[in-house]
């Protein structure tokens, strides 16, 4: 234990200074140097230093600093990915809410159409019938059906534009 205390006293400050310069964070530097000495203590029985002990410590410190920097980069990358995914989810939810709001508004405006115009519009847009099919079903001329659809679309476009202007401004 006395030998360990001697090594700790001799090298701790030097290793700490190097770690501070590389990491720019005193707490991280303390943690890394502490971990290095803890690892040294835990592996003391199997530790074989062939050249200089200080060289061994510096290389071990360098490796710990590299590991720490990799961990920081990895966490930053994960945080960035999480932030991007949260943003994508937010955008998708927001888009869905906007779509639902606009769809609700549009349905309210369709309900305001005159009865025959609404019926023709719904047959055209919701049931997908052609002008001729609607004319045959309702016993109207194709031109009347075409005019009713055109008038309904003009009305709805105008209302949607007004609604969007109130939302934007």
From TrEMBL:
Alphabetical keyword list: Sigma factor, Transcription, Transcription regulation
Domain RNA polymerase sigma factor 70 region 4 type residue range list: 108-156
GO biological process, one term: DNA-templated transcription initiation
InterPro entries per record: RNA_pol_sigma-70-like, RNA_pol_sigma-70_dom, RNA_pol_sigma70_bacteroid, RNA_pol_sigma70_r2, RNA_pol_sigma70_r4_t2, RNA_pol_sigma_r2, RNA_pol_sigma_r3/r4-like, WH-like_DNA-bd_sf
Superkingdom assignment: Bacteria
GO MF annotation terms: DNA binding; sigma factor activity
Pfam families referenced in this protein's UniProt entry, alphabetically: Sigma70_r2 (PF04542), Sigma70_r4_2 (PF08281)
Every RNA polymerase sigma-70 region domain range: 7-69
Family: Belongs to the sigma-70 factor family. ECF subfamily.
Family matches, as NCBIfam families: Sig70_bacteroi1 (TIGR02985), sigma70-ECF (TIGR02937)
Name of the protein: RNA polymerase sigma-70 factor, Bacteroides expansion family 1
Source species: Solitalea canadensis (strain ATCC 29591 / DSM 3403 / JCM 21819 / LMG 8368 / NBRC 15130 / NCIMB 12057 / USAM 9D)
Lineage of source species: Bacteria, Pseudomonadati, Bacteroidota, Sphingobacteriia, Sphingobacteriales
């Amino acid at each position: 234990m006395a030998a360990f205390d001697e090594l700790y006293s001799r090298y701790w400050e030097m290793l700490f200074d190097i770690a501070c310069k590389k990491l720019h964070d005193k707490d991280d530097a303390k943690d890394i140097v502490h971990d290095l000495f803890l690892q040294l203590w835990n592996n003391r029985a199997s530790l074989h230093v062939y050249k200089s002990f200080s060289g061994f410590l510096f290389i071990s410190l360098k490796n710990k600093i590299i590991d720490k920097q990799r961990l920081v980069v990895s966490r930053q990358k994960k945080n960035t990915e999480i932030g991007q995914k949260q943003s994508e989810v937010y955008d998708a939810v927001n888009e869905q809410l906007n779509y639902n709001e606009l769809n609700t508004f549009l349905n309210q405006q369709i309900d305001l159409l005159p009865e025959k115009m609404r019926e023709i519009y719904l047959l055209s847009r919701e049931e997908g019938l052609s002008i001729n099919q609607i004319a045959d079903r309702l016993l109207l001329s194709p031109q009347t059906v075409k005019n009713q659809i055109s008038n309904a679309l003009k009305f709805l476009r105008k209302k949607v534009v007004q609604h969007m202007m109130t939302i934007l401004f």
